Task: inverse folding
């Protein structure tokens, strides 16, 4: 991670890259759901993790957090085919993998018939970059959190973060849906969509810059604005949320903000060993970028970090009339790639911490939606290896065993296995 402290401040008047910017401005969008209380708990700073014990064919071995120095090789195997997919969810409690369709359903892949365990097609629909975009289970598995765009007349296109409790049969009845947060969206694209659950039960929400192209309303750097951010909240079981007191702008700006300066963070990852934060941020017209920030002694990486958009696209200057807030720390990407040979939209991405593919250990696996190329990045050697091609990847996640699965817009669920 390369960081620099910003000392200047400028006031701002289908998954993929979009068109040119428009020189307009608008009031900051609304965000709702917060419950104004002060009895909020959070985890204390965490000790840095450097080693772990994993099971191999030769028994248990101790590995450091660093990536394997051997360039990995893998094979891809299609294990299921459904409707166009936006995400997968590891259900550790039931030892199963759930598949999330963009149209608004979630399916249990632990059965041959792949039954629906959730259906919110009456609340959302697949439309470009809209629909059911992401999901994650609570730490105890009792609740599934959803990130979708609304079809309600007064909130059409707005982001809804909701929760549904688990029923005794392992399903999630939509009649029990609880709204946690809503975010007004000015355009139909760049909704972000990912969710991550943290060890303290708080929820990390990835939100895009509001859409159109070029951040026309200059949302991404503004710390009083939820768009172009990672938000960290503490969901409440009966709806709404609290703001953790250790968020970086709890008393000085929009308290929900954890990180800023993002364009369309479609997929994010928290390394389960180190709590380092990885973000695959979809680029505008020329560059795709991957960000990594170490956790250090924090609960996770990214606290108070600005990732540079829209004053930068990757390393390249973009909008020269905006800059990150002086209270933030700017992090440059760890890896970028240009829009050449058909590449146009990065799909993140997880750090491999499984047991079965030794040479892939510690590498960050990501893809490009347009080319289908799946690659692995080593942050120590700053090298990449092309692993293969999977058509139209929309999400790369860990399953309930810790192994990598790729969800696609074609409907395929693809397992990453030994060569």
Result:
């Amino acid at each position: 991670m390369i960081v620099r402290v910003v000392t200047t401040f400028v006031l701002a008047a289908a998954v993929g890259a979009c068109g040119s910017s428009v020189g307009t401005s608008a009031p900051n969008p609304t965000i709702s759901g917060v419950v104004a209380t002060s009895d909020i708990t959070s985890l204390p700073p965490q000790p840095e993790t450097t080693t772990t014990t994993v099971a191999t064919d030769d028994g248990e071995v101790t590995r450091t957090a660093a990536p394997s120095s051997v360039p990995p090789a893998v094979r891809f195997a299609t294990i299921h085919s459904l409707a166009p997919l936006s995400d997968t969810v590891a259900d550790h409690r039931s030892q199963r993998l759930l598949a999330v369709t963009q149209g608004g359903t979630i399916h249990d892949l632990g059965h041959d018939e792949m039954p629906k365990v959730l259906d919110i097609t009456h609340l959302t629909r697949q439309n470009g970059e809209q629909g059911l975009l992401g999901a994650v289970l609570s730490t105890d598995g009792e609740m599934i959190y959803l990130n979708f765009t609304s079809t309600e007349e007064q909130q059409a296109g707005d982001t809804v973060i909701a929760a549904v409790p688990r029923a005794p049969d392992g399903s999630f009845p939509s009649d029990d849906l609880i709204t946690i947060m809503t975010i007004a969206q000015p355009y139909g694209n760049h909704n972000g969509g990912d969710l991550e659950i943290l060890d303290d039960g708080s929820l990390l929400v990835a939100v895009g810059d509001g859409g159109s192209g070029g951040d026309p309303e200059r949302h991404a750097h503004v710390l009083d604005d939820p768009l172009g951010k990672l938000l960290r909240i503490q969901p409440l079981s009966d709806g709404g949320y609290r703001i953790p007191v250790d968020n970086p702008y709890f008393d000085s700006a929009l308290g929900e903000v954890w990180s800023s300066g993002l364009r369309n963070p479609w997929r994010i990852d928290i390394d389960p060993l180190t709590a380092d934060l990885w973000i695959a941020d979809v680029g505008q017209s020329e560059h795709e970028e991957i960000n990594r920030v170490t956790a250090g002694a924090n609960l996770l990486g990214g606290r108070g970090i600005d990732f540079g958009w829209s004053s930068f696209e990757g390393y390249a200057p973009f909008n020269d009339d905006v800059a990150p807030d002086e209270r933030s720390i700017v992090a440059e990407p760890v890896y970028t790639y240009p829009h050449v040979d058909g590449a146009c939209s990065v799909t993140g991405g997880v750090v491999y911490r499984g047991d079965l593919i030794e040479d892939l250990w510690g590498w960050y696996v990501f893809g490009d939606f347009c080319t289908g190329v799946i690659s692995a990045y080593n942050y120590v050697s700053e090298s990449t290896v092309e692993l293969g091609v999977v058509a139209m990847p929309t999400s790369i996640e860990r399953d309930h065993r810790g192994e990598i699965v790729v969800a696609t817009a074609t409907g395929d669920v693809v397992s990453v296995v030994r060569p």
Remarks:
- The CA atoms of residues 125 and 177 lie 17 Å apart.
